Fold this protein.
Amino acid sequence: MHGNSQVFLEGISGFLGWYYVSLAAMNLIAAYWLWRARHLVGQAIFWLVVALFYMGYLAPMATSADPEWMPQMPALIRNLVNVSLGGSTGAVTYSVGSMVLLIVLYLGRRFFVRGQVAWGMLNLSLLALGLSMTDYNFYTIAAKPDNVPIVGLIFLIAFFTWLATSRAVENDDRIARGEPTLEHEGSEKVLVWPDLVYTELICMVALTAFLLLWGIGLEAPLEEPASSVKTPNPSKAPWYFLGLQEMLVYFDPWMAGVVMPSMIVVGLMAIPYLDFNPKGMGYYTIAERKFSYLTYQFGFLLLWIVLIVLGTFLRGPNWNIYSPYELWDVHKVEALNNVDLSQYFWISGMNMAMPRAPNGSSVPIQLFYIAQREWLGIVLVLAYFVVLPPFLAITVFRKYYAKMGFVRFMVMSNLLLFMLLLPIKMVLRWTVNLKYIVSIPEYFLNL
Amino acid sequence: MASGEKQSLGDVIRDSQIWKSIFRHPAPVDRRNRVVVMLTNFFLHLHPVSVKKQGIALSYTWCMGGVTFFLFLVETVTGVLLMFYYRPTLEWAYNDILSLRDVTSLGILRELHRWGAHAMVITVWLHMYRVFLTGSYKPPREFNWVIGVILLLLTLLLSFTGYLLPWDQLAIWAITVGSNMARATPILGYEGPGQQLLTLGGIDMITSGSDARFGLLGARFVGEETLNRFYVLHCIAIPLSAAFLMAIHFWRVRKDGGISGPL
Ligand code: HEM
């Protein structure tokens, strides 16, 4: 383990010391607030003890830079993470795990938005981050200057999701009791000067200070001069496009890089024209707009943010999956034996050779052979996009269809089907190693 | 001060001819003047005079649209300053960035610009997240949401085009990965499905020298033409478009009835 060398630990001990001191300060403030503003003495004492633990134990131990004493993520947990995320099934474990986590958070939202619980989870995740920092491999990724914003992004998304959900839970309770929502209560008018202008001023000053501190504390990266012959491995797109780059594992570039992004933009623009539900405008609610809420969270949190985190923290050389505590070993090989649907059909299913046009045949003949070879995939794709929407219109989405009319309903269902294409392709890849549903390399048309 | 009344320094300044000529009216300490200040000041007239209390509550808007706009201003100022030091050519680009770190005083200009850009991508996502979660795209605000989506796209493109300018390994390979996809554009990319459709008298119209990727890069690979193209897009075309759309975006916020709220 060259990772835990003394030099490395000494290099980060100062930072970690301050990190734990700030965690202590954070809990101290919380304890003070609980005591003075809420008169919750028991809870205040609890978080005071937590603060003392950070201050009196973790901070000095971290500054010691002694491998014996330095607080580290227990080896048991690191090994567990390495085994579950580092192997060839890492992407499956990670994606399914994230989905299960989000579902649990959603179903148990009433419990998880409680102040005590949310604060506890924040403490645990900050503690886990601190403990993981002493792992050289984790540190190399998380502290890479351009990755620091992603660590921030994760905490910001978590915080604002908590804020929005706690207000939605409160509002939903009030609506059920027939009372006005939190937002209905603030309907009296106030003057923009001073109420808004001062808030804006304070925000600007705080933000400027924050940017200055960030700029002084962390130097912008500059690597070696550009060279078109030395390809870095892995070659990663800027972090906000990593969701698209992750799609490249499952789709060809024309889908992952062109069709899907266009669909995302068109789909976002279409939202106001597809969501016909008049309720839930101007206040946080989940109960009054479950379908649109869940659809958006599925696309934003699971198919965008979770994939960015995957691309940043788990993708390494040759775009293989590495656990965050695992060394990026360039020679790690992952068996790739993905099979096209047409190969499954003709070779495994029919025990025949793949249909192939005789050499030198004309274009129509070639097209005929291609169609024969790929017929199953083509039929499935057509059924998916053409037959499924009307079927949905007369079954599960009958009410939606009645309200939306033909055009709007077809647009919505096709957009949703495009969105679902990614998880479907992922599952097919993981379960039956499916490469392409339709594979027409002659025309670069692989799906 | 003949009257013998004690005047504070602030009063003296606010009573001076210079101050009055700039701000056009006295300090807003009473209700009447607080209304008037919003109407007579150019910068403040973006705002209405009074708003619903919940519409400006931080727990409601998260202030993320405002923060995004402020970051855009920070990027504009630091960006203009950076342009003094940077030449977009293969010969100079990398060295200019290098000396920005080693030679220039106020050495955190580049940091402010880069971290501000990352932050802006994050805050624009959070702003969209809040607008969605409060259902604020519903009528009559549908079109402002559409303008927002374009602003989101422009923000990402601003960040993407800027990523290339330092001309280091990080820069060209990230842009290479990103722009390679354009090669596969259906019909218009030379490795895209249907590119065979565009032929004229048996001659392919879409080749690696004429496809969508070439249009983006100005060449078959990320090179000097690309640097120039991205520089112009990054410093002129995209910021101007974004500023234009932001003006409409803010105007629409007011015309659509101010920040959304329950009916
Ligand atoms: C450069 C990017 C953007 C800037 C500077 C910006 C700025 C703002 C500001 C200052 C507001 C006032 C309320 C608030 O702060 O929340 C606002 C409102 C709004 N924005 Fe944006 N925005 C941007 C991008 C977006 C995006 C990406 C969307 C959605 C896709 C969007 C949709 C809206 C809508 C619908 C409103 C009205 C919300 C309401 O009335 O509650 N904007 N924007």
About this structure: The CA atoms of residues 260 and 289 of chain A lie 26 Å apart.
